[in-house]
Amino acid sequence: MKHRLIFKTSLGDEVYYLKDTIFIKFSVKRRGISTSKLNGGISTNLKSVFNHHLSQENIDYLTDHDVREYLINLCNNFDIDYKQSTGLVTLAKMNNVSIVEKSFKNLEITVLTTAGVRTNASRAGDPSSYYEEYGKFGTINTIILTNVALNDDTLIDAVMTATEAKTVALNDLKIPSQYSNGYATGTGTDGIAIFSNLESDNTLTNAGKHSKLGELVAKSVIESTKKAIKKQVWISQKSQSNALVRLNRYYLDINEFYNNLDYDKFEFIKLLQKDMKKQDNVAITSSILNLIDEVDANLIKRDEARKLSISIKDKCESYPIKKLLEYWIDYFIR
User: Fold this and answer.
1) pLDDT tens per residue across span 22-45
2) Phi then psi for 207, rounded to 5 degrees?
3) Taking the model in full, what pTM does it have?
4) Partners of 114 in the beta sheet?
5) What is the largest CA-CA distance in the chain?
6) Distance (Å, whole) CA 23 – CA 147
7) The pLDDT of residue 138
8) In which residue ranges of the chain is pLDDT below 50?
9) Taking the domains of the chain in order of start, what are their residue ranges?
10) Which listed CATH number (3.30.1330, 2.40.50, 3.60.70, 1.10.575) goes with 4-233?
């Protein structure tokens, strides 16, 4: 199968694009950490890493087969030594990959991200979808390469920083969880792989938020995650600046709302489409939803939040937005 070279790091690592896989061939010896079912954990003998798109046929196959076995077969099909490779899987398409590079003095970071958040976005602590007892297997996949050496503890530190950065990206975009009323902190199936350069004589010992390494990792992950989400599902700052999109995080049966509405439904929708992207309406909606969040977190008393929500809602000059806010307030802060 023909590989198409799409990117090359300063160290010479080659990033290839196949129809359904992004494959990275290392040019130096690397110490890495991976969440993959194939050679996951910390390793020093890997020569490549890949990110693979699962088709519906693949998903159906994995229902009755082992993920590791699938990844081994995939490596064999690509003529890759599976003992020296690790790989992540996702529903996101590989042509939507985002690649971000950042550097400071002699420190360089490269991040490759694919992201799908429409159906699987979730918040840590949301109700689970399955109980694992004897070992069964579910997307934001992040691969990070650096030109410096990192010990095992620093690799784990980098995983923590990168994970927090992914959550920052999701919160900046106001991505809702699909399983609760909260904002998503990731998806139920996220994967990550981070690789340092064993051949470098520059060994860094901290990848936390106070270090320059941690800063570059975080900034790169935030940027690449946002770009990947926009490519894959067309969610961006612009698309999220919408009162109706914000309200959807606290889901209600909109048909019930229309059934009790003393106004022509089609005229109402016409007005709503006109008003839902106006900045003042987005701001008012966001403020009331924040009060609902504060009540849920037991940070503000319900009665006080309701009074304040009503006073904010009364300042709204849009009839459809105002009516929707009344409905949300009555349901969630009654």
Assistant:
1) 999 999 999 999 999 999 999 999
2) -120, 20
3) 0.93
4) 141
5) 73
6) 18
7) 40
8) 1, 131-138
9) 4-233, 241-332
10) 3.60.70
